[in-house]
Amino acid sequence: MEQESQLMTRVWIAWIAALGAPACAPDVVATASSEQASTLLAPLQQQGRELQGMQLQGRELQGRTMQGFQFTGASLGGAPLRNLRVGAGELVAEQDQGTLRGGALIGAHLYAQVGEPEAEPPVTVLVEYRITDITEEDPKYDPTLTGSTFLYRLEENFDNTGSWQPACGADLDGRGVAIPLAATWNAHGDRVESSSLFTFGCTTGVIAKCYRWGYRPWVTGYGDLAAMHWACTRLARADYCGDGVSHTQDGTWVNVWDDLLAPGPIQFHGARPPDGMHFEAAWNTDGAECLSRTRWKTDMKSISRTCPRRVSGGNAKKFCDTVEDAHRHGLTVLLFNESFGDPLHPKLPK
User: Fold this and answer.
1) What is the SS3 assignment for 207?
2) Domain-located, residue 217
3) Is residue 107 in some structural domain?
4) Domain range spanning residue 349?
5) pLDDT in tens, 187-203
6) pLDDT, mean over the chain
7) How far apart are CA 294 and CA 247, in angstroms?
């Protein structure tokens, strides 16, 4: 069935734009797990297309690709920082026989590797950043109650002229900040462990949003939260095929939950779906393991050509209308979501 992308006309959808280019929708405040357990409905979440939300000159990367921030080459007060690392949501480094963390790193300069894929041959350039402020994360973004992390306000020297610009746009809290994670994401949306690079995810991007929804990769006791976080980034972007291609629109609302065993779940579903929402898909790190419907009126022929095992071939395991369906098929799934159902959000043919 040929399907065309259309915009939802519901008046309560927030659309975000920056200079006419797509930007990430701000996050919705999520309640703590103890509060979620007693609510009838899980909190709705906003998601967007962009994986990192890292913006250059107030816009996206202008055809460039963010490869990651270097652990090497960082400095503070003109002196090198040694053993820069990311631990439990904060940057830590050594200088002058002392350990620096938290606000002690305000003023630090770092370098990010940014790819120029359109160059012939493709090249990687270094872009300088500086940390202008560091604050503790708001406890409302800690559903696992695993402690404070930090928010970093970054500026970039994109053209090397000393004209510093904010690196992140403002989120729903009005803050243009980023969260550090000890991994990188490539153009296919794959989480890549690295000993040389790390990610600063702006809080307008899904990497930080999934972190704020409670899927902190380093937290133990809930299973593999690194995999949960990675699966969440697929879900948030409607990356059905697990190839890094988004099939959603910025500002779209989704209902996200997991069925982790105690002390989980981290995100609860509640007694019934939110009004107007229907089961969409079950997710893993490689995309949607089974689908009931698409989030937007997506070209299913294109998806079928790209990842036929997801949506075609008469395989009943690739269709699921409930969590129970996904488990009954014996699929390995980590997260689930619902989205709004109307003529613009078609149910997949079976």
Assistant:
1) helix
2) no
3) yes
4) 1-50+222-350
5) 899 999 999 999 999 99
6) 80
7) 8
